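Issue 218. Parser rejects a valid record. Input:
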Amino acid sequence: LLLRALTKGNDAGFYKAGTNLTDYSVEFDGAIFNNPQMCSGLGVLLRATDITSGYAVFLNLDGTVKAYKRTNNTYNLIKLAKVDFEVIDNEFYHIKATAIGNTFTYTINGKAYLEFTDDNYPVGSFGFCQTTEKWAVAKNLNVEANGSTIWSDDFSQGLDAYEFTRSAPFVSDGAK
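Output the parser choked on:
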């Protein structure tokens, strides 16, 4: 699934509405594509209360992992970490983001790289968060709660179960 938000709409380009989870994990395989204009990355949403608010954690092509609290589409940095390997564009990484109580853990290929605590969003859904500058793909999505798979998708059967970023028509400054 190509995650890039192609409109001037919300950064949550892919979101599972109506799912109020507390303790859960989101696992998937993701790859980041190089954007020659700026640092590209892959963002996952945790405990999203709606398409504009919740936590967003990004793995960036420069090797940083950044956790943000999103409130009405405003990003506030909570935590910054750096991976101990070179993030290579177009290479798939197995990513797992876990929310247990007020603690959030982000692992890449089985190793934890970022952990933060916050009480602002105790319940919410999951999704992916991509700005127009950050290009990535995801496959093999699996969401677990209480040791059981509650959502699994290989994105081969359509995407009717999700909400997408939408916006009014606009004039773009270049060919897309």
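Fixed in the parser; the record now loads. The mean pLDDT is 84.
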